[in-house]
Amino acid sequence: MDDSHDLTQLDPRYKSMMRLVYSIPAVLLVIASTIAEVAIPGWTGVVWVPGLLLALFLVVYLPMRRFSTRGYSLAEEQLRVVRGVMFRSDTVVPFGRVQHIDVDRGPLERMFGLATVTVHTAGSHNASVSLGGLAHEDALAMREEIRTAIRRDTQ
């Protein structure tokens, strides 16, 4: 049963951030392809065209695909995080198991107004679940909603 239609999508700015992240190896790939084209006389386009197509795949298609296969749900006192293009992951964290919650923002996330929420649970294996691509305000609101639920359970 796939009920991914119940999931909340990430912030659309996440696609733009991922495009910027993937553009770095894409530019390096195009530069390497261009150097190879110049170094191999008579093979015009044999290296450069596939390199350019792979760069376009990285910058255009992959961020859209990653965005469309990720989502989350905050319902029934639990956080559900779904992600993965080839290997799907569907993780559910009951609020009662949460130890602490982090809201992180790297330089690119700050530039795009995004944040990553990391929920830490008891245990050693897979003891934390991260959800990136959230608007900073949504990440703070999610943290407060989980904290409020935890306080309610302990009182």
Could you explain the architecture of this structure?
The chain is of the alpha+beta class and 155 residues long. The chain has two domains: 10-67; 71-154, PH-domain like, CATH 2.30.29.210. It contains four helices and six strands; from the N terminus they run ααββββαββα. Strand 1 (71-75) and strand 2 (78-83) form a beta hairpin. The longest helix has 27 residues, at 13-39. The relative contact order is 0.15. The model has no long low-confidence stretch (mean pLDDT 91).
Topology of helices and strands:
Blueprint: H1 13-39, H2 48-68, E1 71-75, E2 78-83, E3 89-94, E4 98-104, H3 107-112, E5 114-121, E6 128-135, H4 136-154
Antiparallel strand pairs: 1-2, 2-3, 4-5, 5-6
Helix pairs in contact: 1-2
Terminal Cα span: 36 Å
Strand order of the largest sheet: 1-2-3
The named CATH superfamily of the largest domain:
FACT complex subunit Spt16p/Cdc68p
CATH class identity of the largest domain: Mainly Beta
Assembly type of the chains comes to single chain
Radius of gyration: 20 Å
